[in-house]
Amino acid sequence: MSFQAYIDNIKSKTGKNPEDFKKQLEGEGLLSPDMKATELVAWLKQRYDLGHGHSMAIWAVFKSEGWVAPTKK
């Protein structure tokens, strides 16, 4: 499955795109630059019943857009 297919499937399932998730997290005071992937994955699972792969696709967008800091190695 391509990356875009993951994003499209998420939109079909939830009605939301990554920007929508960002806005919701900001509105709830949960988004911060030091947010961890595990936090986002847990939130998406609880709120939208998204699996790990789809949640990590959203995480990848958050990182690429600079909404969260890159993971330190």
Could you walk me through the main structural features you see in this protein, from its secondary elements to its overall organization?
- This protein has 73 residues and is mostly helical.
- The protein has one domain.
- Helix content is 64%, strand content 0%.
- It is built from 4 helices and no strands.
- The chain has helices spanning 3-14, 18-27, 37-48, 52-64.
- Helix 1 (3-14) crosses helix 4 (52-64).
- Tell me, briefly, the overall form: globular
Number of helices: 4
Which parts are unreliable, with pLDDT below 50 for 5 consecutive residues or more? none
SSE ordering: HHHH
Radius of gyration: 11 Å
End-to-end CA span:
27 Å
Mean pLDDT value:
94
Helix content: 55-70%
For the largest beta-sheet, the strand count, sense and barrel status come to: none
Q: How many domains?
A: 1
Helix/strand structural class: mainly alpha
How much beta, percentage-wise?
A: under 5%
Number of strands: 0
Concise structural overview:
It contains four helices and no strands.
Topology:
Elements: H1 3-14, H2 18-27, H3 37-48, H4 52-64
Helix pairs in contact: 1-4, 3-4
